[in-house]
Amino acid sequence: MNADVNADVVVLGGGAAGLAGAVALARSLRDVVVVDAGEPRNAPAGHAHNVLGREGIDPLDLLAAGREEARGYGARILADRAVTARRDGSGFVLELLSGRVVRARRVLLATGLVDELPDVPGLRQFWGGSVLHCPFCHGYEVRGQRIGVLGSRPTALHQALMFRRLSPDVTLFVQDLDVPDETARQFRALGVTVREGTVRRVGGTPGDLVVDLDGEDVGVQALVVTPYYRARADLFRQLGGQLATNERGEFVPTGPGGATDVPGVWAAGNVADLSAMVAGSAGAGVLAGAAIHGDLIAEDARALVAAHPW
Ligand SMILES: Cc1cc2nc3c(=O)[nH]c(=O)nc-3n(C[C@H](O)[C@H](O)[C@H](O)COP(=O)(O)OP(=O)(O)OC[C@H]3O[C@@H](n4cnc5c(N)ncnc54)[C@H](O)[C@@H]3O)c2cc1C
């Protein structure tokens, strides 16, 4: 099959991690192609917080600026989706949804993750606004409000304590979840209300939600959920990679600089670190870009020496 795009490095995903990696690589005069399907995880949120120097920026504006910076150093950005990945000699071949083919010597996987929300009707329409997961991302914005925490996973117990720091009015809706005695004592001491039962649906309007708890309407202004975080890692699996799991979800295991167990493949951002926020993802992307560049430098130097009688 003929390749129509060749590069030193293909970056899969043009979120904070991928674009930061692309900038680092392009500034090292690497030929970089970013393939991006254009669905960053935080797109439902209007603002990105804890982004130093760009506090509160629209997430899509941040990425638009990142794309311009990457292009400014010569990176090519394809609005496309990689659908297959395979090894080809010492490099890789990626087929894109458009039918294009990319060949590259190295892969930086920065495809992010999917937030699998609890299966509660009505919940998704408020996701990224009144339904939230991260006290650091948007906790400040709901400080002092009536906050509900959907206790469908063990990490919700910690969430309840985190959000209690931000508001005196926190209700934990416990569903199929054991609350250890010590945690129950902490909730009593801190004034966290615990309600048992099944949350059947979530309705209302943004900032004025109605939680249907076994037929009883409970009003909250914000509802905290604990998604299952699933790395977007089909391409990694196609390349022979294996995922790891922890209590929060499923991710690509990495070593220093984002190296994976698959030679030639690095990973950065949420695909490898389920907790990484925007700044952390960008930082991981830079480190992975630097590591890939170093790896190519070493390979090229070895090849040069092997090819010439120095
Ligand atoms: C609702 C919400 C609000 C948030 N708010 C904040 C906040 O205020 N501050 C903060 O620091 N963090 C926030 N986060 C976390 C933030 O979204 C992540 O830290 C960040 O998006 C991770 O960047 P990333 O580059 O790893 O992945 P992403 O930003 O998700 O980017 C991955 C990119 O890869 C693309 N992609 C996936 N598969 C393919 C493929 N096969 N081919 C091509 N492209 C592909 C996707 O379309 C996407 O564009 C929030 C998260 C959520 C869910």
Class by alpha and beta content? alpha/beta
Gap between N and C termini: 37 Å
**Overall helicity:** 25-40%
In the CATH hierarchy, the third-tier topology of the largest domain is known as: FAD/NAD(P)-binding domain
CATH superfamily of the largest domain: FAD/NAD(P)-binding domain
Provide the CATH architecture of the largest domain. 3-Layer(bba) Sandwich
Overall mean confidence score, pLDDT: 96
The helix-strand sequence is EHEHEEEEEEHEHEHEEEEEEHEEEH
* Gyration radius over CA: 22 Å
Count of DSSP E strands? 19
What does this 3D model show about the protein?
This protein has helices at residues 16-27, 59-72, 135-138, 155-164, 181-190, 234-238, 278-307, and strands spanning 5-12, 32-36, 76-79, 82-88, 91-96, 101-109, 113-116, 131-132, 147-151, 170-174, 193-196, 199-205, 208-213, 216-220, 222-224, 228-231, 244-245, 249-251, 265-267. It is elongated, with a radius of gyration of 22 Å. The mean pLDDT is 96. By secondary structure, the protein is α/β, with parallel strands linked by helices. It contains seven helices and 19 strands. It is 27% helix and 30% strand. The protein starts with a strand and ends with a helix. It folds into two domains: 5-115 and 228-307, FAD/NAD(P)-binding domain; 118-224, FAD/NAD(P)-binding domain, CATH 3.50.50. Strands 1, 2, 3, 4, 5, 6 and 19 form a seven-stranded mixed β-sheet that branches.
Describe the structure in brief.
The mean pLDDT is 96. The chain is 27% helix and 30% strand.
